[in-house]
Amino acid sequence: MVRNVKKPEERKKEIMDAAEELFADRGYESTSVDDIANRLGVSHGLFYHYFDSKESVVDAIVVRLAEEIGENIRKIADTPGLTGVEKFRRMMLESLESKKQKNYLIKLFQGEEKTLLLSKYMDTTISEMSTQIAKIVEQGVDEGVFRTPYPRKSVEFWLHGRFFMVQKYMEDPLEVMGFLKAETRFVELLLEAEEGALTSLWDDYFADMGDLLPTEVD
Which pLDDT value is given to residue 55? Predict the structure, then answer.
């Protein structure tokens, strides 16, 4: 009988996928390395060949998520036939959809002990996103919708501010929503767009948040 030996990257992906499924079903704290290994029908030894702990699996998952978001934005930025604002809208809504699909990750970032994990996710995500979003903003500048002379720096400033504020209010969703509602005008000012240019986009963004965060904010 020929033994089916899987390639390292394929096996590593299987472990990450199984961990994601269990985290989503049971939560991070209620999932053990035993659970992950049993889900795949593999030994502890094989698990530890690829990851040295449950925390390292999460680390790999958040990096993969950031890379997926960056790749999705690249595809939007390169889509022909859309204006810069239309691409910006699609980018915002599709990024939100990615977060909704992995909603359980929000809990992983809560608490002081998760600061380093969130910091890594922020750094990786901003690095992956900023170049592609800057391309969208540059198109908007060419079209006269945005007028910032610093597309890349404006995007980086916005993303760092967004992550910082969300992190600050991570355990108070109503405060997060208050910040996000104010963000509409902040972004318009950063990109030097006309007031109201992005209002409908953010309205759609909040409407599409569903149960990700509360929507009742004074």
Answer: 84
Residues 6+ apart with CB under 8 A from 113: none
> CA 76, 181, 202, 147: dihedral to nearest 10 degrees?
-70
166 & 201 share domain:
yes
Q: Which of 100, 96, 120 is nearest to 180 (CA)?
A: 96
Residue 214 confidence (pLDDT): 45
Residue 29: give its domain's CATH number. 1.10.10.60
- What tokens does 95 get? 């990024």
Q: Look up the pTM and report it.
A: 0.76
Longest dimension (CA), the chain: 69
Residue 218 lies in a domain: no
Spatial separation of the C-alpha atoms in residues 57 and 35, rounded to whole Å = 13
DSSP assignment of 134-190 equals HHHHHHHHHTTS---S-HHHHHHHHHHHHHHHHHHTTT-HHHHHHHHHHHHHHHHHH
Number of structural domains (the chain) is 2
- What is the Cα–Cα distance from 141 to 147, expressed in whole angstroms? 5
